[in-house]
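Assess this:
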Amino acid sequence: MRSGLIRCLAVAVGLSMATGTASACHRCKQSPCVYVAPQPAYQCVTEMVPYTVMKTVWHTEYDAVTKTVMVREPVTNYVERQRVVCKPVYDTVEVPRQRAVCKPVHETSYVTQTYTVCKPVQTTQQVTSYCMQPTTQLVTVPTGHRCGLCHKDPCGCKTVACTTYTPVPVTRDVVTTTMVPETHTRQVPVTHTRYVQEVVNDVQRITKCRLVQEVVTEKVPCVTWTCVPKTVTRQIPRRVCEQVPVTCYRPVKRMVPCAPVAYATEVAPSVQAPAVSPSTQSGPAAAAPAAPSKQG
């Protein structure tokens, strides 16, 4: 607390020296200024300060433990045993026998059959026909019509070509084909089937079954139990305690200077201006105001 008060007094002295060296005031118009500058105010600020705490943490670890135990295991042994079984045996016997069968007998006979065939017959005939043959002759005829020039009666005769048609006989051969039916005879085979009874000797196979006793050897499984040593590994859990550093935060109250509006507009520019030159930094006005800290 004493260091905080000393710092506050140093800040007040520095502010008074800074205001004493100023020129004529722009408010009171006097040199030196008799206007008292407003003092900076302080406010209480709560900060979270980290600190380290050792915390006890429990976790599980597993230890491998190996031990030998006796385990029962089955052992299968096969034992030979004999038993009597009945086995079927099949015997085949051939027995002669007679049986009557009907045997087909095929007989073929020929029957006369009449059929008609149409045979073509060609006949040649002479046919006489008349054709008109033209004949041209020169005939003298008298002229009896008037002349076309002088309109007088003509005189004399005139020769004119006259065509006449004379019938001429023409003989030609005409072939005529006619179908003449003819009757023929042929032998057609006809088959007749008749059955004749016949005795046949054959052999019949008869199968008989009989049971025969037989000794059979078989293996019967026999299970026995035996103890066998076996190594078993187990994981045994155990709880382990460990100290782990943990970072915690606690609230700390501090006094921080809070400049009002009047102090920021009037005093703060006059205090910060001499701090720019290196000559004034070594003086008492160059000391920065330190805020008193209060730890709760």
Remarks:
- Strands lie at 41-142, 157-258.
